[in-house]
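Title: Prediction job returns without error message
Component: structure pipeline
Severity: low
Priority: P3
Assignee: unassigned

Description:
Job completed but the reporter wants confirmation the result is attached to the right record. Sequence as submitted:
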Amino acid sequence: MKKVITQQLVKATITNIVWERIFVTFDIRIEQLTDESLGDLTFYAVNESGAAKARFRQQRQDNGNYQIRLNVTNQGENHCIVSGNYWIVVCAGNRHLAVCETDLNLVNRLEDCSRGFLYNRQKNVFSVVFYVSEGEDTLPFRMRILPAAKTGLGMPGGTKGKKRKTIKTRIKEKRRPFLRSIYQCYAKQYRNKKNTVLFMSEQSDVLGRNLVAVRDRMKERQMESTYTILESARSAAATRQSMKSWWLLVKKLAQSSVVVLDDHAPILDWLTLDDNTKVIQLWHAGAGFKSSGYSRWGHDGCPAPYSAHRQYDFGVAGSKQIAPFFSEVWGIQDEQVLPTGMPRMDAFLDQNHKKEKLKELYEQYPMCKDKKVILFAPTYRGRNKKTAMYPYELIDFKRLYELCGEEYVVLFKMHPWVAQEVPIPEGYRDKFVDANQYPDINDLFYMTDLLISDYSSNIYEYSLMGKPMLFFAFDEIQYAFSRGFHRDYKASVPGKICHTFDALLDAIRNKDFEEEKVKQYVEHHFDYVDSNASDRVIDWLILGDLPKETVEELQAIADANQCMNQQVFEIFDDKIV
């Protein structure tokens, strides 16, 4: 690299800092001090050893200034920016032009702009601190990254207040190294593995519908003649598993050249698969609003800097436009999320399947015949499966029953994690139905005329019905702070938002659904509306026949990362020169 900073061709000044979840955006004022054409600029975070450890995504403004953006959980290579003290350096091609300074009006706000992200049950923090170098004639901008752990505040060497490790913790500490060793032994045994696909769930004793759809499609295509198909379904995220169960899973992981998931797999938080294993995430949720993974970093239940998500080679989404929702959650690149569509929707969009299921549904729920069906299907409240619940006391069953009259019946389909039955009063069962035991909510959509949801991703499939939705978001403010949204809720919902049950009843009564939003939602969220999502997953991700555009995008990322890693910035007297 050519060192031209001392020639003062450019002056770069940070004028503002804005955070949006895990993304920090800097406004950069560029003052060109020469008539020389410099072309497009690039920006790197450079540590005290002179190594570029993060590259910013930049956008040039009409006035020649720049906005640069950094995801602190993904610095360009699918991991958090590492600890250290950083300068932001401006480059043009192979030339280092300037080190960013701090605008005088921003200096006093730097402390307020700094952030700390809690994780590991709030025992650790990932700190991002902004400051100005002292003892300088100018105001050089600095950024300090510091992952830190909880420490005691007692006397050094003291034992008072220390918690004793539980038996469960001790078992984990011994079991995990042992299982890693077992995996390594099996990995050597199966080092020449190929054409073995493992469909795996750690959240349920049965495989999810996305996994089943792809597995069954592989069998329909007679791929069992060339591929070995393995399965593993355990509720390990909530239920204690035997050592035999762990041993069998580890062996299957070592055997597999492809691992296909549909949810978070906690074992991959601490067991790193070998480089020859491809991991594909078919996330079970189409596109809801709830923050998860790294999009809710700093909140209870968020992942550690390294987690299972980091091992994904690819994920899927319904469209290219919504791929960033998923890549943010997983801490991977947008380009690694392909718009295959959801495999489970192949059957959902099949007209013969729809006809068959409608017949079954009307036989099972005869009260729905010749009536308009309202499906009440919200997500759960609570931190996890163990604490999941829904505040049924907010539902005025009496007034809802009266509103139904001769026009409506209501089916209640709660989130699978909500164990408590819907408390339907005995006298209302001719119009109210607890449909929690019905296995597939998608089938219920066929006879639904109005969906009432809140923050659930079930709206994704239902939107293709082209029918109205209402959103009973009584706790929108609280939910935004506790669980969090990874996109603007009000701007994104395909229907009317009701914050009280009275408002919900009024919207039903007046048929005030804001139905025009449904079409906009579908156009934004679906690149394909067909029954070929499973084939795209198989062809693109399992067989590796990626679309040409994706190959080029991934190569561009690899080239950019290589360029970043080859940068050498020389340090002298605590300055970059």
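Comment from assignee: result matches the submitted record. The longest strand covers residues 10-20.
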